[in-house]
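Student: I would love a firmer grasp of how sequence relates to backbone shape in proteins. Thank you; the sequence and its tokens follow:
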Amino acid sequence: MKPNFQTASRVERVRYEIRGALARRARELEQQGHDILKLNIGNPGEFGLRTPETMRRAVVRNLQYSEAYGPQTGIFPAREAVAMQYQARGLTDTRFDQVFIGNGVSELVDLVLRSLLEPDDEVLVPAPDYPLWTAAVVLNGGKAVHYPCRVQQQWIPDLDEVRARISPRTRALVVINPNNPTGAVYPEETLQGLADLAAEHDLILFSDEIYDAICYDEARFIPMAPLATDTLCVSFGGLSKVYRACGWRVGWAVFTGALERAHDYLLAVEKLAALRLSANVPGQWAVQTALGGYQSIADLVARGGRLHDSRQAIIDAVANSRFLELVKPMGAMYAFPSVRSEQIPDFDDHRFAAELLEQKHILIVPGSSFNISDRNHFRVTLLPEAEQLEAAFGRIEDLLEELADTPERASLTG
């Protein structure tokens, strides 16, 4: 019998369990007729959160101009609209040619890392992280060095711990703010400290800001670019989350700061962008309307809004739980609860997620999927209605009760 076809070894080192084995099992259960509550992905359209009507009209009006390939860096109106947003953030000299449009932030992350890394170059990535960042570093031949963001510090990074992980091989520092998966929103002091570290060690700063307008209560989003003028800063945003247009696959990367030293690097990014010809053109026609129009996300995150109420439902459920703890998420669209070790000492997040799916038909993401060693966390999205989340956390509490009563079940790895 012939051997199986070879798989690239670097793919074996990649983790993306958000859409991994548990999600595949959820599809099997659906095919058997079960209703699965999918709390694993921040996918607004799945929960009835629609793209604004003005954006849909902008795409329809411009379909006749969308049938040819677009420029590899994006169409001018979209790039100019993003540049104007950065001008409003205080970077008054930002020009459209500092903006690259891609098929979502995910594609742009790959392009900027592929244009930068030599084998074994290091990139500082937060832990927990959105695992795309670690995966993209690995797939492009680099080494992801994780700096811890600890629950005891409200998931905010400690600058001394970041500094301690910088080596002669370090090329870049990744910041995710507002944070996925924890919901942390970083204070200006921390952001300035990270920017200063990057400048001191001549690192490119990659700032993932896809949730920039999703902040709750007193939290305030502070963009990195105005703080990072002494090194190259690449800031990422897009239509997926704030504008609820995930399927349109429109993201952008904005290059600011030490541009005089980045000429060759930007040409390399553009060369790779040209290899894939162009990003999705129809969706790009919505960027100008999105950024310049009414910001309906503010209604969703304000007190009484859909996302605010769903977040509060999780906060209340955890507060009433015998087993769960939570650092209150201040941004993004996720909560990252943990299970009290004194209640279930041998809790295993993967085993719990598997049992929750099989028994309660709820799909979550184990916390260790986000490149941390702790196995007592899990991530859920805030997108369902508050009533759905209340019911879901009732079922979560029921399963935790069962595990507490039969400790051997909690420790079996899934």
